[in-house]
Amino acid sequence: MKKIAVFTSGGDSPGMNACIRAVTRTAIYNHLEVTGIMRGYKGMIEGGENYVSLNSRSVGNIIQRGGTILKTSRSNEFMTAEGRKKAFENLKLNSIDALVCIGGNGTFTGAEIFYNEYKIPCIGVPGTIDNDLSGTDFTVGFDTAINTALGAIDKIRDTAESHERFFFVEVMGRDAGYIALASGIAGGAEIVLLPEVKENFDQIVSYFNKSIHSKKSFSIAIVAEGNYEGGAFEMVNQIKKYIPTFDPRIVILGHIQRGGSPTAYDRVLASRLGNAAVEGLLKGETNKMAGLINNQVALTPFNESISKSKKLNPELLKLIDIFNC
Ligand code: F6P
What we know:
By secondary structure, the chain is an alpha/beta fold. The chain has 2 domains: 3-141 and 262-307, Rossmann fold (3-Layer(aba) Sandwich); 142-258, Phosphofructokinase domain (Rossmann fold), CATH 3.40.50.460. The chain is built from 11 helices and 11 strands. Helix 4 links the parallel strand 4 and strand 5 (122-126). 6-O-phosphono-beta-D-fructofuranose (F6P) is lined by residues 11, 104, 128-130, 172-174, 225, 258.
């Protein structure tokens, strides 16, 4: 193995740049050449200027920056055999022997199929704010995202208290509730609605009835985007049919959660996992994700990491009920 390539793919997450830096510098330390592939699988397929040579200096002063200097995309073409063939041809043209991919479920699914067809070794690093990958306690970007959500929730509490209002705050996470659960507990939310714990509508209405009749002058509910079809706006519309006097405010935090300077935790995590990915390739590993299990670096096969077997911590779920009194 002489030359590796690194790329970011899927939704960006804070800490991806710290990881690109770690991959590049670990590779150089081990006398490997490094190419950065711009725009994920899309750039891999399109070739040309999407393949850029990286050195220690080109990854300087990026550890603190959100986003990804390599850009990212979600590629439908890579899901086709023809697209993957073009990608392979471009990798060969650029003498790439192995890959480090930084991304989430879709990225690793693509990497697994690609390896099975073309046998180019690949190790992944979990880069997603959703924290929905098995084989790692945390994904790169999750800690920053929950702190960003928390900053917003704290501000919303100020105005909620002043106006004695009920607020719904919708957070990201796709079909996983990790962001909602963590920001809900840290933000002192009264109600946290998660995709994993689907209440029926009567239960939701009764939560809010209870809350309206409690002695609290204001309340915050965190709604995971995957909890209710149509999201927080639709949920509130439906609740109003049962409780016409209910007049909450709704805040959708959206892509703010994906940006910003990574926290110290995310920088260290990204640095450890980027390093582990290259060391894994050097040891002949492939088709695995470098993650952190009980604070120890571990490699988990892609198919296990995307299996969705990581469950929300029941201890944290219980806290929501205990503190809501
Ligand atoms: O997977 C990361 C994520 O931010 C999810 O939380 C969210 O559902 C989705 O990406 C949004 O995707 P897009 O970038 O296409 O708007």
